[in-house]
């Protein structure tokens, strides 16, 4: 499941809620990164490593999926997650709202395996959240994350939060539960 949306839209909050609601059925696709952790950031979404460790991990992988954002590297070994998918594990990943990113992931993992959940939101509120949680060097993400996703062959859902956190988490968890049980 790819949770796609603008920076500050609540993707991570919603994904973490689903992880807590379905601990035996859902796993986060953790990404290695060379960037420094933000204040109070844990290791659910990222494994923080220095450049040498990152290069060593990448070189030991048969296939490596990598992005560079603001001079920092982000990468995963797709074979690890493909194996988990083949074992029936449900995976979730938060990504920017980007047709290119979704197309890249669909080529790696297969369009038939991907469900896109696009988190819609209030642009002003998203920007406010972004500015309160990210350093100024990352504020331009709000401009590049704002185009729509439309890819043939990928099942997608638009999730429109009410910005009432408990209600949004409950509704998102119902949506994720439906996707998990539909795939069985």
Write a concise keyword list for the protein shown above.
single chain, 184 residues, alpha/beta, Rossmann fold, five-stranded parallel sheet, four-stranded mixed sheet, 7 helices, 22% strand, globular
Description:
By secondary structure, the protein is of the alpha/beta class. Helices cover 40% and strands 22% of the residues. The strands form 2 sheets. The chain has a 5-stranded parallel β-sheet with strand order 2-7-1-8-9, sandwiched between helices. The chain has a 4-stranded mixed β-sheet with strand order 4-3-6-5, with helices on one face.
Order of helices and strands: EHEEEHEEHEHEHHEH
Strand tally is: 9
Briefly, what CATH class? Alpha Beta
Distance between the termini: 15 Å
Can you list the strand order of the major beta sheet? 2-7-1-8-9
Which regions contain 5 or more consecutive residues with pLDDT less than 50? 139-152
Summed up, the helix count is 7
* CATH homologous group name: P-loop containing nucleotide triphosphate hydrolases
**Which CATH architecture?**
3-Layer(aba) Sandwich
How many whole angstroms does the radius of gyration measure?
A: 16 Å
The helix fraction, in percent, is 25-40%
Please state the overall shape, judged from the principal axes of the Cα atoms: globular
CATH-defined fold name: Rossmann fold
What is the domain tally?
A: 1
Largest sheet: 5 strands, parallel
């Amino acid at each position: 499941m790819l949770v796609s949306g603008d920076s500050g839209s609540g993707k991570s909050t919603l994904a973490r809620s689903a992880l807590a609601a379905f601990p035996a059925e859902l796993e986060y696709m953790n990404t290695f990164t060379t960037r420094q952790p933000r204040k109070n950031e844990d290791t659910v979404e990222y494994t923080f490593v220095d450049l040498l460790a990152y290069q060593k991990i990448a070189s030991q992988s048969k296939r490596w999926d990598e992005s560079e954002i603001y001079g920092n590297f982000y990468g995963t070994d797709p074979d690890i997650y493909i194996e988990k998918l083949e074992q029936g594990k449900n995976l979730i990943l938060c990504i920017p709202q980007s047709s290119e990113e979704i197309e890249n992931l669909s080529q790696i993992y297969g369009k038939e395996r991907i469900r896109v959940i696009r988190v819609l939101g209030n642009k002003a509120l998203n920007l406010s959240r972004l500015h309160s949680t990210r350093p100024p060097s990352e504020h331009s993400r709000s401009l590049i994350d704002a185009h729509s996703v439309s890819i043939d062959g990928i099942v997608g859902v638009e999730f429109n939060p009410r910005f009432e956190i408990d209600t949004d988490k409950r509704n998102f968890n119902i949506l994720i539960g439906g996707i998990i049980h539909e795939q069985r």
